[in-house]
Amino acid sequence: MKMVAPWTRFYSNSCCLCCHVRTGTILLGVWYLIINAVVLLILLSALADPDQYHFSSSELGGDFEFMDDANMCIAIAISLLMILICAMATYGAYKQHAAWIIPFFCYQIFDFALNTLVAVTVLIYPNSIQEYIRQLPPNFPYKEDIMSVNPTCLVLIILLFISIILTFKGYLISCVWNCYRYINGRNSSDVLVYVTSNDTTVLLPPYDDGTVNGAAKEPPPPYVSA
C-alpha cells in the first residue's frame, strides 16, 4: 500500500543536468532575459546612431533599407515585451506563482509553431532555398559554396538542422510545462490518494489540517488504576 500524490504520475520533476524543473525554468528565463537585453541594447544604440549600422544598397544587393525607424521601433517594442515575459517566468518559477509562467509557455508554443511552419515550407517548396540564396548580397560569406551544393543535399541538411532545433525547443517546452504542473500542484491542496486492497479510494486530508484538528481536541483523561 502506497500513498502518492495524483499529480506526480503525469510529469517529471527533473530536467537536463539532473536539476529540478523549477531550477531549469529559472535558468532558462534568465538566459532569454540576457539575450533580449543584449538585443535591446543593440537596437537602442542603432536608433541613437543610425550611421553606425547603416548599409548601402550595394552592400545589401538591392534598393531597400536594412532597418528603418518604423521597423526599429517595432523591434524595440518586441524586445521590451520579451524582457517582460522572461522576467515574469523567472519570478514565477522563483516565487512559485504558476500563472506568471503561462505567457512564457505561450511564447514557446508560438516559436515552436513558427519553426514547424518553416520546416514544412522547406519540405513542400525545396526550390525556395535556392531562390533565397540567390537574393543574398554578392559579398555574403560562403554564398558560392552554398550554391554549389546539391539542392537535395542542401534541403536534407536544412531539414536535419531544423529537426534538431525543434527537438531542443520541444524539450524546453516540456521543462517549462512540468515546472508549471509542479508549482500548480504544490499550491493546490495537498490531498493524498490512498488505495486499499479492495480497490477503494480514500482521500486523506492535508497533514497540516489533520495536525491542527488533532491538536484542537482535548486530550483524554488520565488513566487511574483501581
From TrEMBL:
KW Transmembrane helix (keyword) present: yes
Topology within the bilayer: Multi-pass membrane protein
Superkingdom to which the source organism belongs: Eukaryota
Record flagged with keyword Magnesium: no
Localization of this protein: Cell membrane; Cell projection; Endomembrane system; Endosome, Multivesicular body lumen
InterPro entries: LAPTM4/5, LAPTM_transporter
Keywords, comma-separated and alphabetical: Cell membrane, Cell projection, Endosome, Lysosome, Membrane, Transmembrane, Transmembrane helix, Transport, Ubl conjugation
Residue intervals passing through the bilayer: 30-49, 70-94, 100-125, 146-168
Main function: Required for optimal lysosomal function. Blocks EGF-stimulated EGFR intraluminal sorting and degradation. Conversely by binding with the phosphatidylinositol 4,5-bisphosphate, regulates its PIP5K1C interaction, inhibits HGS ubiquitination and relieves LAPTM4B inhibition of EGFR degradation. Recruits SLC3A2 and SLC7A5 (the Leu transporter) to the lysosome, promoting entry of leucine and other essential amino acid (EAA) into the lysosome, stimulating activation of proton-transporting vacuolar (V)-ATPase protein pump (V-ATPase) and hence mTORC1 activation.
Subunit structure: Homooligomer; upon reaching the lysosomes. Interacts with MCOLN1. Interacts with NEDD4; may play a role in the lysosomal sorting of LAPTM4B; enhances HGS association with NEDD4; mediates inhibition of EGFR degradation. Interacts with PIP5K1C; promotes SNX5 association with LAPTM4B; kinase activity of PIP5K1C is required; interaction is regulated by phosphatidylinositol 4,5-bisphosphate generated by PIP5K1C. Interacts with HGS; promotes HGS ubiquitination. Interacts with SNX5.
Homology family: Belongs to the LAPTM4/LAPTM5 transporter family.
Protein name as annotated: Lysosomal-associated transmembrane protein 4B
Species: Ceratotherium simum simum
Gene coding for it: LOC101404102
